[in-house]
Amino acid sequence: MNCRHCQARLALPFLDLGSAPPSNAYLSEAGLRAPETWFPLRLLVCGQCWLVQTEDHAGREQLFSDDYAYFSSFSASWLNHSEAYVEAMRVRFDLTPASLVAEIAANDGYLLQFVQRAGIPCYGIEPTASTAAAARAKGIEIVERFFGVALARELVAQGRQVDLVAANNVLAHVPDINDFVAGFAALLKPR
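The chain above was modelled as a monomer; its predicted structure follows.
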């Protein structure tokens, strides 16, 4: 396996946590009678750039399926943090109704609902159908796709470049972190 960032060969073990089924992969009644898929949870560290990363065993489509079960709005403390974050960013970057905000991995709209409430136009990017539907039910526009440079360029071509982009609890789940982060640079307005 090569490093997700610098592509150097990974050979230095960091931590072995055994194995586990994919998070939020709840079994149906029929699935309870079938073998369950488990993946190794081994961490490696890159000897070139020192990025600690998991070994890849499951693709993003397998982990973030249409019936993805984690909804960020279930956590009251996370909602409180999100509301405070939006207010801090509104003040810090002087966000107004003339601004545009995007959240990558918008989940169920937990953060963008506060952006909307502040009167700031926004949209989310969220690949999982279940959480995207919950965000849409809150009146939040969602682009239901995985994020990277190609999608960022499409959005820019549509005139949807943003003043602020947010992404919480997502980078560790991204297989191509360089493409993902480069997408931010493409999506943000120059100033």
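The helical segments are 60-63, 76-92, 112-117, 129-137, 149-157, 177-187.
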